[in-house]
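Need C-alpha cells for this chain, all 199 residues.
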Amino acid sequence: MTQRLSLLATLLAALAFALLPLDARAGEPGETVVLVAKRNLQDKIYGSTILFAKPLGNDRHVGFILNKPSSMTLGKLFPEHEPSRKVLDPVYLGGPFGREVIFALVQSKQSPGGRSVQITPELYLAFDSPIVDRIIEKEPQQARFFAGLVVWQQGELRAEIKRGIWYVLDAETELLLKKQTDGLWEELVRRSERKANTI
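Here are the C-alpha cells for all 199 residues:
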C-alpha cells in the first residue's frame, strides 16, 4: 500500500502547501464548488462530467470528477490488503493526473489526520497513504475513493467558467458522496438549465 505514493512524491510535496486549508494560508477567499459540464462541452475527459473544485489560492484549483466509476475496486488494486477486499464500491476516476494515487473523500467533522484538506464543513480529502489506509480499514462506508485528480493552473478555471463551459453549483455533502451517479449529470444539467431560464 505504501508504494502507491512513490510515483507522485514530487507532486504531493509541491501541493502540500497549496492544499492546506485556506484559513491557514494568506486568508485568500474561496470555497469549494460543484462544476457540471454544459452540453456544449465535447471533450473526451470532461464531457458529461460533474466535478468538485477546491481553491488553492492564487486563483488555482484542484478537483475530482464525481461521476466516472471505474471497473476497479480497492480489492482489485490491493488484493493483499484484506480491508480493501471488503470495499465493494468502485474506485472513481478522479482526473487525468496522478492516477497512481488513491485519494479518500471522507465524511467527518474532524480531520482524519495527516495533511488532509477540509473540502466542506463535513468533508475532508485525505491523500497521505497511512491516513487513506486507516479510512479503508475503519470507515470505508463514509468515504469515496478516487484515482487521480484535476489541476487548474492560475486563472484557468475562472477562464473556463467565463467561456461558458461549466454550470457552478453549491458543494453539498450529499452530492459529493453520492455513489450512484447514473443519470446524475443529465439531472443536474436539466436543473441548471431551468434555473438559468428563470433568471
